[in-house]
Prior knowledge:
Number of helices: 5
Oligomer: single chain
CATH architecture: Up-down Bundle
Structural class: mainly alpha
Amino acid sequence: MKNPNDQKALTGFSGSWGRAPHYQIPSKSQNLNPKKGEEKIYDIQERVFSFAQRILEIAEKLPQNRVCDVLRAQLVKSGTSIGANVEEADGAVTKRDFINKIAIARKEAKETKYWLRLIAGKYIKTELLEEDIMEVQEIINIQSAIINKTKGE
């Protein structure tokens, strides 16, 4: 049996399968694209929370029409659900439940990436969404790493 302290090192969450808010995996573009005056956030819970706030800002910028109302609703649902599922994973009681919640968060991140790509260039300038699309891809990569490392224990 592995040392329980290794759990936090591998997944960033401590305890049985939760309770630590400090998951840190530097991404490939670790310091390439922080916004001016900002540093990358490596705490996964804070990172997805900040991303959800950005999704809300993007949703407010969409034009007011019936098509964009549907896109806005889908984007907000998937973009904010990522963080909600990461928070649920933090409270998971079993390894299986933890992996399941992170996998759901990853599915929501992939859906969010789709909606961002769909609105890029059509309703909001592509260059304004490039960093957000890169960020959601990094979140997907981090979640995949969490799942793979947790399964490998």
